Amino acid sequence: MKRIALVPVIAAAMVAVMGSAAYASQYVAYEGPGFTGRQQFIDACGPSNIHYHGSYKWYGDGQSGRMYNQPNAQGVMHFELAADRNAEQRTPVGWQSIFIVC
């Protein structure tokens, strides 16, 4: 009897853990200065090219973001966005790619 009662408890715990894993750090690139124009949302682990350079917002939620001045996270890392802090810049940025460390 105890084994049957334990199955729903384990399933509920797995759902709770998987649900909390859905949050990830996110880089939002804006086409224009002051967070205007089209947007690109990047939250995938690994390298991503940045299409807009007018301004950005970073939401640090557990993963850091390594910023590169070349596409495909090539060359030397220029800057690292913190895993536990948000950041933003209202003016244009030169970063061409990001590598989100997961």
UniProtKB/TrEMBL annotation:
Domain of life: Bacteria
Pfam name, any one: MiAMP1
Annotated InterPro entries: Antimic/Inh_G_crystallin-like, Antimicrobial_MiAMP1, G_crystallin-like
Key words of the record: Signal
SUPFAM superfamilies in the record: gamma-Crystallin-like
Signal peptide: 1-24
Protein name: MiAMP1 protein
Native source organism of the sequence: Nonomuraea roseoviolacea subsp. carminata
